[in-house]
Sequence to fold (1177 residues):
Amino acid sequence: MIDEPRIHDYGDGANVHKKVSLEFGDMGEGFKEADLIREDILFYEGNTHLPMEQHAAVAHFDADHKLTLWSATQTPHYVHRALAKTLELPASHIRVIATPNGGGFGGKSDPFNHEIIVSKLSMMTGRPVKVTLTREEVFYCHRGRHPVLMKIRTGVKKDGAITAMDFQSFLDGGAYGSYGVASTFYTGALQTVTYNVPRYKFRGLRAFTNKPPCGPKRGHGTPQPRFALEVHLDKIAEELKLDPAEMRLKHLVQPFSVTANYLRIGSMGLGKCIEKVVEGSEWKKKFSNWDRENRKLPEGKGVGLACSSYICGAGLPIYWNNMPHSGVQLRLDRQGGVCVQCGSTDIGQGSDSILAYIVAEILGIDPFDIRVITADTDLTPVDLGSYSSRVTLMTGNAAIQAAERARELLTMAVAEKLSVPIENLSFADRRVFDVENPETGVTFAEAVVLAESKFGTIGTVGSYTPPRSPGRYKGAGVGPSPAYSYSAAVAEVDVDASTGIVTVERIWIGHDIGQSINPALVMGQVEGSVYMGLGEALMEEMTYRANRNVVHKFPSLLEYKSPTTLEMCDVVTYLIEDRDPNGPFGAKEVGQGPLLPVMPAIANAVYDAVGVRIDEVPITPEKVLTALRDKAKGREARFGPKRVPDVEWPQPLKVLTPAEGGDGKEMPRVAVHS
Amino acid sequence: MMRLPKFTYRVPRTVADAVKMMSDAGAEGQFVAGGTDLYPNMKRRQQTPKTVISVTRLKELNQIAGDGRSGLRIGASVSLTDICEHMLINRDYPFVAQAARTISTPILRNMGTIGGNLLLDTRCNYYDQNYEWRKGINFCLKKDGEVCWVAPGSRKCWAVQSSDLVPLMVAVGAKLKLVSTLGERVVDAAGLYNDDGIDYLRKRPNELLTEIQLPPRNGWRATYKKLRRRGAFDFPVLGVAARLDLSDDGTVKDAKLILGGIAPAPVEVKEAEQALIGAPLDEERMQAAAESCYMKARPLDNTDFLMNWRKQMARPYVLRALQELREQ
Amino acid sequence: MSGRKQKAHIKLTLNGEPAEVAFAPHKTLLEVLREDLGLMGTKHGCELGECGTCAVLVDGRSILSCLMLGLDAEGREVETIEGMATAEGLHPLQETFADLGAAQCGYCTPGFLLVAKELLKTNAEPSRDEIKEALSGNLCRCTGYLKIYEAVELAAAKMRGEEAEAVKETIYGYE
Ligand SMILES: Cc1cc2nc3c(=O)[nH]c(=O)nc-3n(C[C@H](O)[C@H](O)[C@H](O)COP(=O)(O)OP(=O)(O)OC[C@H]3O[C@@H](n4cnc5c(N)ncnc54)[C@H](O)[C@@H]3O)c2cc1C
Ligand code: SF4
Ligand code: FES
Ligand code: FES
Fold:
């Protein structure tokens, strides 16, 4: 190990990018309390975002020696910083405009080589320079889902209450870092936010390999451990002969509590999500209840359940600073129009319209009265970008602040004009009026004129910084979020025992959105997440030829299998609105969370259908058939990894849990002996 | 943007002109119909003809004539969509429409032709790659290289016959009309395909395929089953075409079982046919036929899915084809 | 430059109007539309016939513009997404796609809209399965297709002259 050459000058070892070892609470005690200790090893194959639009960028270095870059990016602010650094230009001379984005899913959130190259070429030639990647090149940019091998060991009481959980993850990072440190932490962060986990240990390792770099894809680092956890819990439920839905319902994490690893939970609607999907899917009439002899569904048909949670924005930015994560600027014009400017980037999730709805709601005007200008580093205040499901919550809160400040100015001017007490004024239907005397009022446009006459040009700003997390230990930066969304899913599948082909017939999914600001957009994100989860569960994988020529096996849209209309299942969606005090109007995220329960729900349903465990994603017909054959021969009815590598883990960083009286800080090393 | 290399494009209006243009173009010439096979290959620089001669505007190649009693003649440039929707084909040769409907996607079928489909280049996932990718592995036997990466010891290319209609045409005994400046000839579909991924057609490059002739429907039945990952886009990784001639008492008089998608040419499984002929079509015989197909199927690792699994799928897919024919 | 001489020149009907265009003769219709006619509404995801993003209508039939030569558009009627809205306003499909959220990033949308239009021309009341089949050659990574089916069904109903509205569950989910 020691003499091996280093691949990069950063990282934790020869080919090791990151090694993490964290321990929350007395694990020995936890496992001692358990009635059952179960250990499972699972694998999640890597896959990629596959946005329909290939990355493209145009740069123009003009006669004033200022650079403009138009790029299909999710993070214009980070690209701006990267350009300033690599091109050695003053940041103030660089303008980055994120163009309407033909799909991102995380794949356009790293600053990319081609963005730097077109900029440099334009500087050299003085001409505009454009690059559009070929589909093959998009595969090589990747930054997609890490292949992760996982080992999970959990102690439970007879009723399924978790007493301790020990989780290990091994990430195949590809050739470069990308956001890989965060990815590594994310494979261990969110295990604690769904069910009560009083003691928790996490060890994670990210290795460099000679493949395209992995990074953030929808769910960043959390779908893999969620798959492992939810399949593992299904197996525990079987050993304890418990209904998997009831077992989960009984041990939900408490709302407004702090987890063993110091994540602060806000509103928590998972219970309602589970109840909805159980009822809607007629779970009780379908689930085998671990009794293969007296099945309710015919052999080959099965149902499976899984739950999940996701962050609504990362608590910390990618680079260390104390500034807001999102800024919004409003300009009110005399005609009654409002212009909203924000650095946020619409990648199809509809974030531009969210700004309009929120501002319109507060100013009592129609969203169509609002112009939205986003994602232009010259025109818009910084927003960190479209990643970690942060946009609605963070830009929404910034927009509320900016709009409330504008409303205050208008209120003062109108109150004076109408001689009405300030607290009597209300904004609705494009009017500002006295609530006690609704005929007394002015139009919104008149209100702007009054305010402008009184105060001068009306422009306000708002910004948002997430609350500080209670975790103070090294590594506490990944996982905290202003709020957590929750999802539960039931999948119903058909497994053809002669081929191993799995058909997902329907998915019932409940999602705790806090408050939907535009339900049509929320529904779209839920269904799109289910779609992407279905692809990951059944067919999508980044595979390489390892034996003879080390190349991507099929960097094409034909051979990388993305489900068509004919594979997409029916989806029945329930939106649970459990408002979170940290969300704008109580809203939480929906862009990523609903993907998470899909893969484990399908894996659990396959087991219910034919009695074989596929502990590996994607669940391909080859794997199912192999497991079925093994089962027929009396061998272990399972397909999946059997061991994890032997790793010398560093001494764990020990933190007392809140229940043990911890303060969120790590314990001094001297006190550690393990 | 993947772009085509430069070439000269010619659009003849008569068959005579077409074959003349081809003989003028020589080895650098190639016919194109829908272009759905040729143009992707040209963009990936697998094929780089200097002269491309379109066959879509040749009237004779766009007609469908005859019926189930006399036999059907389908012009080579008839689009796959027209095959799928054609009234007579659906009435008298429904299995042809059914197989055509499994080809790629509705949009592609609006462009792709039956002729192009029958002459499709063989496929291999070491070969159907961009120029840069292939260069990255030092190319392969089929184009620009020295080794077959699928079977490095072999001097032969194992690229796969991947058309959905080929196995069916072979099974039903279709005949193909080929025309060149030297004249015309009619060949059995079965005789057209050669078990070599590079030299996969027993046809001179300058021969124009003008017509596909389906034999009269006197009693026989046929079907096609396709294995692929997704219900659209995907090429067959196993295709089973079956034709049976049953006498009134249900005895199998004649049988053809052709496997596609597993070798450079369609594979006739004589053992399976023998297992069926002369006896009623019972479960045991069908199992035996399926078993023979399983034994005969030797796919290699150059398409989607693991090759072992594809081989194993021969059993259930052959069985399904035969079961369907029994019900027909 | 010598390039000029090698340009091909064709006449066609483009979105209902006569048009002429000159271009390098080995260009695909996709390239001619985007680069020589400046119609950027036609998108592309692979340029190899593997995604359906580049679909346009030629003589009313959907084709993959990445696999058709520009030269073959000579004398034909080409319809791109730019021609879908008319002086009277958006096409009913465009309206329902927008209302139901059948477009998220919108990149696949031109292809879906044109293929759906082609479907509704021959089948005024397609079943869900017929819609799935007709749209099976268009990949979308965002929507999961469900809103697209619903938008096609709603537009079809509107085009049949029915008073139709989106079902509540489409927008609000199930109770
Ligand atoms: C994404 C994708 C998916 C596909 N999926 C399938 C599938 O599932 N099943 C399947 O069977 N095919 C599939 N294909 C292959 C192909 O598109 C179809 O088989 C189609 O029918 C080919 O017809 P074409 O007219 O477009 O062929 P072209 O590309 O025009 O021609 C194909 C070959 O035939 C030659 N040729 C064409 N016509 C003549 C003629 N009249 N005389 C002599 N030579 C001629 C050409 O020179 C060329 O070598 C797929 C293609 C793509 C791009
Ligand atoms: S079978 Fe071998 S020679 Fe033929 S295309 Fe594939 S790798 Fe090349
Ligand atoms: S761009 Fe993908 S099919 Fe044309
Ligand atoms: S809406 Fe984004 S690909 Fe379809």
